[in-house]
Specification:
Fertility Inhibition Protein O, Chain: A, Domain 1, SH3 type barrels, two-stranded antiparallel ribbon, 5 helices, elongated
Length: 210
């Protein structure tokens, strides 16, 4: 018997409709612009489906069409597609301009949030270093001479926001070193990359190097 357990979140709903309508939806890579009125078509096709409700579909569609990979796919001259992958109307310039504006605003918010997180992290690390220094000083009974090894100068740099694009070859900072990889998907909170060994993993954009 087919599993009819109800889906619980938008990520699951998007994965489900991508499985049901693979020529229209995708869970990785650049997404195709959707036909205007696609929600009605989707609700009608899945009307008897116990796994998903109309409210869930509406929320999932809103998340899908506001994602970076969807907004990247809204380009001049590109056709919208219906549930079966058939071409519909060509995108109008006002829709292309709107997608570009939404993408830039979303990226700006992420840059601001990452900057705030970096400042908070630096402040926290600074306090931790002070605490460790006080602990070491209080525990030392004899003066000791320590040789501080300098870390080798990094020859890589953190990618700029506009450099984070699907298909770009990058270096992933793994803590102990960098590993070559290729960007395969861009989300709001992370970036999916494929390592040279074929492994696909999600990382934060700040861990990507050029």
């Amino acid at each position: 018997m087919e599993n009819s357990e109800k889906l619980t979140n938008s990520k699951e709903v998007i994965a489900y409709i991508a499985e049901r309508f693979p020529k229209c939806f995708t869970v990785e890579g650049e997404a195709k612009p959707l036909k205007i009125g696609i929600f009605q078509d989707l609700a009608e096709r899945l009307n008897e489906d116990p796994k998903v409700s109309k409210t869930q579909l509406r929320t999932a569609l809103r998340q899908y069409t506001s994602s970076w990979r969807y907004l990247h796919g809204v380009k001049a001259g590109v056709n919208r597609v219906d549930l079966d992958g058939n071409d519909c109307d060509v995108l109008e310039q006002e829709h292309v301009d709107h997608a570009l504006k939404a993408l830039e605003e979303s990226k700006a918010k992420v840059r601001t949030r990452r900057k705030e997180q970096a400042i908070a992290k630096a402040a926290k690390e600074g306090e931790a270093k002070k605490t460790r220094a006080k602990t070491v000083k209080s525990n030392n009974t004899k003066p000791k001479t320590a040789t501080i090894k300098k870390k080798p100068v990094e020859t890589t740099r953190v990618l700029n926001a506009d450099e984070v694009i699907v298909g770009k070859n990058v270096q992933v900072n793994m803590g102990s070193g960098n590993m070559p990889a290729t960007i395969v998907e861009i989300n709001k909170d992370d970036v999916r990359v494929r390592l040279n060994n074929g492994l696909v993993m999600a990382v934060k954009a700040e861990h990507l190097r050029s």
